[in-house]
What we know:
The complex is a heterodimer.
Chain A: E1 2-11, E2 14-24, E3 29-33, H1 40-48, E4 53-62, E5 65-66, H2 72-77, E6 80-83, E7 90-94, H3 95-109, H4 117-130, E8 141-142, H5 148-162, E9 166-170, H6 178-190, E10 197-202, H7 206-210, E11 215-220, E12 223-228, H8 231-239
Parallel strand pairs in A: 3-10, 3-11, 6-9, 9-10
Antiparallel strand pairs in A: 1-2, 1-4, 4-5, 7-8, 11-12
Helix pairs in contact in A: 4-5, 5-6
Chain B: H1 2-15, E1 29-31, H2 38-47, H3 52-66, E2 90-92, H4 106-114, E3 134-140, E4 143-147, H5 150-155, E5 159-162, H6 163-169, H7 171-177, H8 188-196, E6 201-205, E7 214-220, E8 231-236, E9 241-249, E10 256-259, E11 262-267, E12 272-280, E13 291-302, E14 308-315, E15 320-323, E16 326-329, E17 335-344, E18 349-358, E19 364-373, E20 378-387, E21 395-404, E22 410-419, E23 425-434, H9 437-445, H10 450-461, H11 463-466, H12 471-484
Parallel strand pairs in B: 3-7, 6-8, 7-9, 8-11, 9-12, 10-13, 11-13, 12-14, 13-15, 13-16, 14-17, 15-18, 16-18, 17-19, 18-20, 19-21, 20-22, 21-23
Antiparallel strand pairs in B: 1-2, 3-4, 5-6
Helix pairs in contact in B: 2-3, 3-8, 6-7, 9-10, 10-12
Amino acid sequence: MLQINDLRVAIEGREILTGLTLKVPAGEVHAVMGPNGAGKSTLAYALAGREGYEAVSGSATLEGVDLLALEPEQRAAAGFFLSFQYPLEIPGVPAMTFLRTALNAQRKARGQTEVSSPDFLRLVRAKADALKIAPDMLKRGLNVGFSGGEKKRFEILQMSVLEPRFAVLDETDSGLDIDALKIVSEGVNGLRAPDRAMLVITHYQRLLDYIRPDRVHVLAAGRIAASGGPELALELEREGYERYGAAA
Amino acid sequence: MVAVKETIEAARGLEADKYSAGFVTDIEQEFAPVGLNEDTVRFISAKKDEPEWMLDWRLAAFARWKTMEEPNWALLHYPPIDYQKARYYAAPKNQAKYKSLDDVPKEILDTYEKLGIPLREREVLLGVEGAPRVAVDAVFDSVSVGTTFKAELAKAGVIFCSISEALQEHPDLVRRYLGSVVPASDNYFATLNSAVFSDGSFVYIPPGVRCPMELSTYFRMNAEGTGQFERTLIIADKGAFVSYLEGCTAPMRQENQLHAAVVELVAMDDAEIKYSTVQNWWPGDSEGRGGVYNFVTKRGDCRGARAKISWTQVETGSAITWKYPSCILRGDESVGEFYSIAITNGAQQADTGTKMIHLGKNTRSRIISKGIAAGRSNNTYRGLVSAHAKARGARNFTQCDSLLIGDQCGAHTVPYVETKTPFAQFEHEATTTKLSEDQLFYCRQRGIPQEAAVALLVNGFVRDVLQQLPMEFAVEAQKLVAVSLEGSVG
């Protein structure tokens, strides 16, 4: 589903990803782990099309669509979703309004009709309920005054409403206590589907106890240094990233 | 002339998709001669067949104006205005007054239809069934061409007509209140208006009456080289309530058009006036050519105890905006409110705010101002909150937020506070933020295109104020906010 080939990405002329190759087939969840500064967030932002993350060479395709040639909103409409490590606050825009605007913009870009308000309300309420999000929070400015855990839950809510084909979860576990981690993980697991794939970026093995990956990749010095099954995550937890050349 | 025409065409091509109200109505009009002197004042007064006292009042104002100097304290830059080069009166030909809407020329009716203004009583706003009805007074250049729902309003005792008509039908009411809030000598532009005002709306709500529908006036400047000097007077007698909205548009013209209006509101004991403005005068092109110079004096007088006056404004148009809708809180426990959204883009300049003058005991005021600057524009909030020695227990809350889009625009906040009593409590909060790239990227990652993302973020920023608008206009205002900022990012 997602194919990244020999991708090099530079920020202000400095190469952060130095030839990254990665394939995530439909229906699978892969984890990317790695030390600080290895390029994990750079990978997430480069795929999403953030300004300043320049793809120098290589390719990244989602179901054959060249992501790198598209604007960020076009990538979203093509089914790419990024759960942000630090979700942004959008004052004065209720979460409900934000989500409806996003969903309808994507549908419009795909040539689909807009979702009617009553249908949308029902859809969001049901999904929010599953993530234990109180209905009145949907009326507040998106992420404004939310706790770290609430913000992450809202990221997953957005993902479940927008139903992307491919999602990158960037450090979704950071700032979560154990209860929030369980809720978020259940939400993510509920979104596993044969025609959807996910890439979970994390620092710690802990998250992978809840979201079981099919494959684990080690990202070090801008490229995939090792790949393996879930046991690789446990090994990293025991031995650290030193053998992959990371400074301790 | 050919060059002028070409420039207009070029400007039109450039901006046409942005400013949908910029068309010109082709209709035969009659004008006052170019220039401004006593004869101009007499000409206007004669055209309207005014009582003698009105002419005298105008002439006194004109004599006064000649001794005054144009103010220059605002943060606005524009070449000197040649008051002798403009026309001060333009009206559709042969029709000093239309008996009913059926007599109004089709070109004019079409104009309002194109602008989405319902001039036929059976039409319901926005085509929504069961939507509240709105009575409209339509002012086309210097004259009112029609007022809807007059008969129905009259049943409730409400007077809603053009000020020219009020001078004929209700001269005593006009004489009693005209200039009682904004004296003829008030300021340069108000004094000019007092001398040459042409038309505007007059509203009187009798004691205890809640006006049965929204009232609105729609101002359209059409004629070339002609200023518009409207005068509006609204009186809510004891315990009365009225909600009033004004809308403004003008064609895209290469020269600057002068608009100097005066609006006076009077609220007696327990009365409430809610006055909303959606100002969308032609702002000029992106290079700053053309556009309306909007020098407006708006003031409300809470003359009675527990009176309330609330100003809500959405200012998106004009090349220059100079406007400070204010409240005199004379009655004890009276309340003044000012909610403002001012958006400047391109080369626009706005210097706008309010004055809350606390005279009575336990008077309260609230100011929420949202300024948005994009392009190379400048956006200034200028406000005064003052308390008289007798204004024990006066309270004010002011919040001024500025949003900058891009790095070539400016936002300025100039709040003045004066108090002569130790028993007043004033609070002021101000923020300035830049529309962040991070927020934009976040929206775009969710599939919202850049321009829509800007509109969404800005609408979030102004939400507190939009909620103050009558619902049926809030939707329009929201769209206007988005259109005004098109092309401001990227």
